[in-house]
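## tool: complex_structure
## caller: assistant
## args:
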Amino acid sequence: MSQFQEKTQITRIERFTEDILRLTLESPEIASIAKPGQFVMIRTGNSSDPLLRRPFSISQTSNNLHFQVLFKVVGRGTSILAHCREGEFLSVLGPLGNGFTIDCRNRNCLVGGGMGIAPLLFLAKAMLRKCPDTPPIVVLGSRNREELTTLVYDFAELGLSAYTATDDGSLGHHGLVTEVLETLDLGADCTNYVCGPHPMMTAVHLFCKKRNYSCQVSMETSMACGMGACLGCIVPVEKGGYGHACTDGPVFDAKELVWEVK
Amino acid sequence: MGSEMTSADLRVSIGPLKLKNPVMTASGTFGYAKEFEPYVNLHHLGAVVVKGISLEPRPGNPPPRIVETSCGMLNAIGLENVGVERFISEKMVSLQEVNVPVIVNILGDTLDDYREIAARLADVKGIAGIEVNISCPNVKKGGVAFGTVPGMAAAVTAAVKESSSVPVIVKLSPNVTDITEIARAVEDGGADGVSLINTLIGMAIDHRSRRPQLANVIGGLSGPAIKPVALRMVYQVAKAVSIPVIGIGGIESTEDVLEFLLAGATAVQIGTANFVNPRASEEAVAGLASYVAEQKLESIREIIGGLIIP
Ligand SMILES: Cc1cc2nc3c(=O)[nH]c(=O)nc-3n(C[C@H](O)[C@H](O)[C@H](O)COP(=O)(O)OP(=O)(O)OC[C@H]3O[C@@H](n4cnc5c(N)ncnc54)[C@H](O)[C@@H]3O)c2cc1C
Ligand SMILES: Cc1cc2nc3c(=O)[nH]c(=O)nc-3n(C[C@H](O)[C@H](O)[C@H](O)COP(=O)(O)O)c2cc1C
Ligand code: FES
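## result:
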């Protein structure tokens, strides 16, 4: 059951770049039950402005004691969060959402872009535990080398060497992750686990559709509550109507969603 | 939390509806209550008001549906709901297990819609009251909201009252010139109480993209930003009618609840604050109990309408 912890201590802050940080938070309650792909809602300040909590994927857990969030400063909430100090407390609600479904029968491929890489480290760890004989293929994309270095290293620590793509060509392939995917031998059956900017997820979905691969995507929407109460976090679904990213997702089977292909 | 909570007298009545305390949750902000079970002892609350129900299921508006604004949020959910049949067969079943009075918020496009939903709910077990959302457009009257014309507001009230077997609360829209006029009309229509305010219509624009931030272009403003407006309207309506008033709008804390009671509200509803602090409603109940004990009041009812104007 998800927890509401008004005082979750920040035990470590790592600054990867000017605007990308990773927080380690201490919460046995959350760390011990979290699944890869789930998220937490964090209150970034104590006042009425900003008012709402902000959603962040759980990027990793350790020893059933700590969990991490990796985030980029894009606005007021994340900017306040970036000014927190070690030892301070945050109000956290979670873990929330469904998480990825790990399938050991197929070859697995993790595809992350930008901050979408956050949940994939947690997923990779769980996968290695669940399917030790079939380590996943990892493909990561971002703006530049700076953003990726530590993450690539984290995957390497798990024994996984990631394929990379950067917008400026400073690390790995100069271009898109889908261009990297096209060059890989993924076999006849491959399950893809994707999280990243919407255009990237659309491209990976189309790639998977063409090859008849299954594809799980983690969707980002605006969220007010994170627990199914506000009905704000909708994503259009193929059968008509909407799914709710916080309770039906954030992970969806890409086939079940409506994709706007330009 | 514990001891005062049982000893302090927090009971209030909305007409025939007796509540153990004045704190309810606002429609559309508390799901069907089950969502909050991990965080809240639901039976500590005065009542829960569930998401608005229409005759037929509604898919709601396209995304984006919500956007944060200064000290508040805009929503254009578009009244997404499962429809009255599924509400009765699915949602009501789990609500019956929860030991808390359930108030069902209803909405419609026509007078007949309202009448029919009320009739369908009339013999469902476990419903303590009905709250009528009259902020919806009347499709037979060119889309003018029921809640903006006194005659239409009175007619909806009378229609629901006629076909329903439980107390009827009418939820007022603040998007009118004189809310007291509407309040008096629904009182004449037979309402057992009024609740106010629903969201204030607002808008947010992204100047970079030159686009509205909500797909629906406009939406309803809620949260702390609207509290001063809500307090003013509760104050005016409480003076204008003799039926109980339920105050809603930007309530986050015990202090906020006390302010609404002083302004003349008999009870309150907590809305947007549930998203920020899922325990807000239960904490307000505990806070009121402490207040009654500290101030050595006989009951919380002593402060209702107790505003001192020097
Ligand atoms: C399930 C889920 C998991 C998420 N996980 C992560 C994560 O692990 N790491 C992470 O960094 N972010 C993550 N996000 C996105 C994160 O929630 C937003 O970046 C954050 O809410 C922005 O808050 P803010 O107050 O800083 O920005 P706001 O002030 O709310 O917005 C500032 C600007 O940023 C834009 N913006 C808002 N949200 C996003 C977004 N999601 N993506 C891009 N631009 C945006 C706004 O349009 C606006 O222009 C996740 C979102 C969801 C729904
Ligand atoms: C996301 C959301 C959904 C809402 N849905 C409904 C609804 O279905 N019916 C209704 O009468 N009011 C609805 N409201 C209005 C609230 O019940 C309440 O009147 C309003 O938000 C003001 O209170 P607050 O500032 O405490 O949120 C909704 C509000 C929000 C924020
Ligand atoms: S974020 Fe509120 S329902 Fe999903």
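## assistant note: Chain B has one domain: 2-60+78-200+222-303. The longest helix of chain B spans residues 83-97. Handing back to user.
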